[in-house]
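go over both lines:
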Amino acid sequence: MSTITNEVLAETTLLRFATAGSVDDGKSTLVGRLLHDSKSVLTDQLEAVEHASRNRGQEAPDLALLTDGLRAEREQGITIDVAYRYFATPRRRFILADTPGHVQYTRNMVTGASTAELTVILVDARNGVVEQTRRHAAIAALLRVPHVVLAVNKMDLVGYEESVFANIAEEFTSYAGELGVPEVTAIPISALAGDNVVDPSSNMDWYGGPTVLEHLETVAVSHDMAHCHARLPVQVVIRPQTPELPDYRGYAGQIAAGTFRIGDDVTVLPSGKKSKISGIDLLGKPVDAAWSPQSVTLQLADDIDISRGDLIVPTPDAPATTQDIEATVCHVADHPLTVGHRVLLKHGTRTVKAIVKDIPSRLTLDDLSLHPHPGQLVANDIGRVKIRTAEPLPVDSYADSRRTGSFILIDPNDGTTLTAGMVGESFAAPEPVKTEADDEGWDF
């Protein structure tokens, strides 16, 4: 394994990216090849993979085993959970999320891509663009992932034919464009043979673009949350009440977006109380400023009633509070989401009661048409919802902030995550028909 010094790492940028694709498209093999050929695999890890491969009767090491860590994954030869891997090259550091391909695990792709700045969507060159490919492209578009890579895999099984690659790339790029994906980079690869993953392929001299790793190392990381509107969801109120700090009161949490500075005028939501930042503690030391995604403690000049779930924001950039939220969602639970469904809505560190007032439309992935008023959303459906909350929430548009413009719906009976939502995101759904939900027992 190559040695990269701490000094080199300090000067490199960080890219979070996710892999997605249909079953057996070769996602785990691609990730394993990427780690292996970039010399990011420890010797003992490689030896363990070689040993496991021999036990399965394979002559060459199965690089997919580098990411398929669960016993069920190894036994069935499929990816079930999101596998996170951390590696680095002299040019960049990476956090990689290898997500499952099975339809029933699409919810995991939502998790893996929600913080990604780039998504690699694999397609089997023999099968082309399939429904799961379209579903993953739609999720990447909804989550506003800035960069999408189409990796047309298993080119060795189609004779490395340029026309096969060109037809798949054209179909996918056209579909992604209709979804509003801002950028697609298509790369022909063979993860098993290593073509165009880390090293250029001699089998595809007709391709003059970057390898997968070269693109990952050079793509612009443009989604900088430190330059968004500042937001601090309060996680805990700190009051040590020690002789050394008798009057200390701090509001701790991870900065979701933007930058806070001493002297900033701030507003606490949803109460609307105003104050000024009098101190900022970072890692136990006072600082003049802090920014996303740092975890800090803010001190305010005024004694205000603040608790977990409140949101501290700059007064000039305070979002409006609302009890009526309209959003596009991806339903991830096994049981459906229906009109009138009583749920818990978690936004940042705040959780409130809510009711699904309407489901105006469901997206049909085949042709991107909208099925109006389906009445419910089932697992892996993408649709439009209207929600009424019991308490006002300060929400941003997802287009402005991926952190404070998102939420999840939770089953109040067992705590199951039902739906992941993006405030304001839309596929131009038709105007909904107003319906009344039964609010009995929910006082709002």
About this structure: Helices lie at 6-11, 27-37, 43-55, 71-76, 106-113, 131-142, 162-179, 212-218. The radius of gyration is 24 Å. The chain has three domains: 6-222, 226-317, 321-423.
